[in-house]
């Protein structure tokens, strides 16, 4: 319920409710806009609002008129991009953007730490004011630990959900029969929207988020000697021994293609370390699509935009898998205020 409140109340404040302000600067000719970068801003804002109860207004050009918001947003984005590049060059990570990486990390850290101190989150009187964050604060011994936990959830919740939205809207504007059904459902049903919920869950399969899993690679470290029942070698018959401390990299991207594997589809993973934000993400995606289609009922594929066969889209791999061609749509001109 808390999450719902944060999402619903704040959305209209700085999201699609304020759609003239949000979309106007991005609109190209004929009401054409790439929604993908906006979805990244939106999910940064909603996840921050959920975590800290604080708006950073990354979706608004003026950042809510606060320099600290702007600095945080820019630094967080740059830090994350650098992180991915450093991750890719493995042992040589320290060679990439050493000084600038430290600088953006420290701006990002300071922003969250200031908030922790400002709200006195770690004092015993902090109580139950902020729900999630209080519970986390009680578990974390130091400010740095609490800061890192918060940033971890921000990282986990933001890009994944933005990519999910982007792939789904790309799909909807390319499949008018599905889009029409969603529109009809939004108009006719108040309350549970089974069809849209189905699309969101299934898009991860049908629209081949099976093919384009939002988290394409993941890894786990063996805490003890472990035997995996089948190896990844071509015949996949023999077991494989994993020594203690060794890292096993799983590729959801590859596994989805292996028809004979039972647990092949796990966009949120499973077990004790499964995604904590699954419900939040599904609700956020559902809500955003409903609000988008309510605000822009005529949204469609722009003229001249490629309508490629599902499965042949260009992709971009960072920590997540996004559309390399973005999510360009024609909003359909009717930007009523
Ligand atoms: C469509 C959106 C999302 C997808 C596909 C997704 C997927 C995943 C996956 C695959 C993992 C790794 C689990 C593992 O390694 O076992 C994960 C972890 C996690 N996710 Fe999500 N996620 C999404 C949205 C979110 C959101 C919105 C939040 C929070 C607001 C969130 C919070 C987390 C956290 C905290 C973890 C770490 C859990 C742990 O290590 O115990 N996720 N997610």
Description:
Keywords: Heme, Iron, Metal-binding, Monooxygenase, Oxidoreductase, Signal. Pfam families: p450. GO terms for molecular function: heme binding; iron ion binding; monooxygenase activity; oxidoreductase activity, acting on paired donors, with incorporation or reduction of molecular oxygen. Belongs to the cytochrome P450 family. The structure is a single chain. With 337 residues, the chain is mainly alpha-helical. Helices cover 49% and strands 8% of the residues. The protein is built from 11 helices and 8 strands. The chain has helices spanning 2-14, 19-23, 35-52, 67-88, 98-118, 132-139, 143-174, 176-188, 194-203, 252-255, 278-295, and strands at residues 32-34, 217-221, 226-228, 240-242, 247-251, 315-317, 321-323, 328-330. The strands form 4 sheets. Strands 1-8 form a two-stranded antiparallel sheet. A two-stranded antiparallel ribbon has the order 2-5. Helix 7 (143-174) packs across helix 11 (278-295). The radius of gyration is 21 Å and the shape is globular. The structure holds protoporphyrin IX containing FE. Residues 47, 153, 156-157, 160-161, 164, 214-215, 218, 267-269, 273-277, 280-281 line the site of protoporphyrin IX containing FE.
């Amino acid at each position: 319920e808390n999450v719902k409140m944060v999402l619903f109340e704040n959305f209209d404040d700085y999201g699609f409710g304020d759609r003239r302000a949000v979309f106007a600067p991005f609109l190209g000719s004929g009401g054409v806009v790439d929604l993908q970068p906006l979805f990244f801003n939106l999910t940064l804002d909603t996840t921050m609002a959920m975590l800290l109860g604080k708006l950073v207004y990354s979706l608004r050009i003026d950042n809510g008129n606060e320099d600290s918001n702007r600095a945080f947003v820019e630094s967080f984005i740059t830090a994350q991009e650098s992180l991915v590049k450093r991750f890719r060059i493995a042992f040589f990570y320290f060679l990439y953007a050493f000084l600038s990486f430290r600088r953006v990390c420290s701006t990002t850290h300071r922003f969250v730490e200031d908030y922790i101190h400002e709200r006195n989150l770690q004092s015993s009187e902090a109580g139950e004011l902020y729900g999630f964050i209080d519970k986390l604060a009680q578990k974390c011994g130091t400010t740095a630990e609490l800061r890192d936990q918060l940033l971890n959830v921000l990282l986990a919740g933001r890009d994944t959900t933005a990519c999910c939205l982007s792939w789904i809207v790309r799909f909807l504007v390319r499949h008018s029969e599905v889009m029409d059904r969603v529109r009809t459902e939004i108009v006719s049903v108040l309350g549970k929207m089974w069809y849209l919920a189905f699309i969101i869950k299934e898009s991860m399969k049908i629209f081949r988020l099976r093919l384009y899993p939002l988290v394409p690679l993941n890894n786990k470290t063996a805490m003890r000697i472990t035997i995996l029942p089948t190896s990844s070698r071509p015949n996949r018959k023999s077991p494989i021994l994993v020594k203690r401390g060794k890292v096993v990299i799983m590729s959801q991207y590859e596994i989805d293609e292996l028809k004979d594997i039972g647990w092949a589809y796990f966009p949120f993973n499973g077990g004790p370390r499964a995604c904590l934000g699954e419900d939040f993400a599904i609700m956020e995606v559902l809500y955003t699509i409903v609000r988008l289609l309510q605000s822009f009922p005529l949204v469609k594929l722009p003229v001249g935009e490629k309508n490629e066969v599902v499965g042949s889209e260009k992709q971009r791999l960072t920590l997540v898998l996004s559309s390399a061609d973005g999510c360009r749509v024609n909003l359909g001109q009717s930007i009523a205020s």
